[in-house]
Write a structure and sequence with these properties.
about 140 residues, mainly beta, six-stranded antiparallel beta sheet, two-stranded antiparallel sheet, about 0% helix
């Protein structure tokens, strides 16, 4: 298990643009809090279960701090099996569910965007199945 929390208290010290004074505002594009944690269980026969969780607080999207993204929670769960075919060849079969909580969030924000186009839609809950070969 790994867990990390980040607190960002970044603000403009002295920032003016034309007649607008943004001094003291939160730094555009930086969330105040980010919490991440992951957990992995290894079972007999090389079967594993892995989960990762990330909470991101609201993010200021404009220098004037009038527009913010909503906070969001992302949960990913992956289950798989690893098979050693030969001494140096591994085969992994897995299934992964991404955005388990079906959160609506932006997969990348356009900061100070014209016409209020700040958000880029991220996929809803989705499933991925795959096989990886490692030499």
């Amino acid at each position: 298990m790994n867990t990390g929390i980040t607190y960002n208290d970044f603000r403009f010290l002295s920032y003016t643009n034309n007649t607008n004074d943004y001094s003291g505002n939160q730094l555009t594009g930086v969330p105040e809090y980010v919490l991440t944690t992951d957990l992995k269980f290894d079972f007999p026969y090389h079967i594993y279960l892995f989960s990762s969780y990330c909470y991101t607080s609201q993010i200021p999207l404009s220098d004037d701090n009038l527009t913010y993204s909503e906070p969001y929670n992302l949960l990913r769960i992956k289950a798989g099996k690893i098979v050693e075919l030969k001494k140096r060849i591994k085969l992994e079969a897995y299934a992964l569910v991404d955005n388990v909580l079906n959160e609506t969030y932006s997969l990348g924000n356009d900061l100070n965007a014209a016409s209020g186009r700040y958000f880029n839609a991220a996929p809803p809950r989705n499933l991925k199945v795959g096989i990886t070969i490692q030499f």
